[in-house]
Amino acid sequence: MLSARDFFDLDATQHAALFDDTEFVWDAINNINDYIASLLAGDFAPNAGDFEVHPSTVIEGDVYIGEGTTIAPGVYIQGPTVIGKNCEIRQGAYIRGQVLLADKAIVGHTTEMKHSVLLENAHAPHFAYVGDSILGRNTNLGAGTKLSNLPVNSTKDPATGKRNTIQLKINGEIYDTGLAKFGAILGDEAQTGCNCVTNPGCVIGARTWVYPLVSLNKGYYPNDSLIKLRQTTEIVEKRP
What we know:
Blueprint: H1 32-40, E1 58-60, E2 63-65, E3 70-71, E4 76-78, E5 81-83, E6 88-89, E7 94-95, E8 99-101, E9 106-109, E10 112-114, E11 116-118, E12 123-126, E13 129-131, E14 134-135, E15 140-141, E16 146-147, E17 167-170, E18 173-176, E19 184-186, E20 191-192, E21 197-198, E22 202-204, E23 209-210, E24 215-216, E25 219-221, E26 226-227
Parallel strand pairs: 1-4, 2-5, 3-6, 4-7, 5-8, 6-9, 7-10, 8-11, 9-12, 10-13, 11-14, 13-16, 14-19, 15-20, 16-21, 19-22, 20-23, 21-24, 22-25, 23-26
Antiparallel strand pairs: 17-18
């Protein structure tokens, strides 16, 4: 129920090795740095210096850019980052490093990403925040979606300098993720509606849709679900 294969078709992605030696799907978030480093040391050696971009675009650090990818003016990309083939990085995107974009991924206008993965054809196309998260193949974030990654009450222990880890209660059992920062997991073909916010530690199953304006509590949401927001509106006559 909570393994990587429960959320992703690992036979259909180039980056199945990201999930090697994981018990729970969120364990792969701890693999992101090492996995990107292994790519940059192998077939994805940094090549951004050979890639022609608009003068207003800034690329710093170790960055690989795949064939057919387009990068708009006003983009900032910090390494280590690997960008696959035929991706779109749209105007105003901010990629803060430790990011992997598989082929045909989209990072849209004023979208910010850090320490995250978009698998093949995953889209964060408008005004999104994606932190410490993994989005499966063919996922889509509605405009304004925020995958928040740090609980509002998170503080560092004065003695150790470390934050508490995020714990999830699933079917009555407590799972300590071991992660102080944890945005969301979206299984293949999952979608969020406009202005959706996922609270730190959301694990959303494949093909599940989250309706617009939902503030989603941390926890597990099964495959093939609709997560709806119920609200009541009232129309009254305007008075002079």
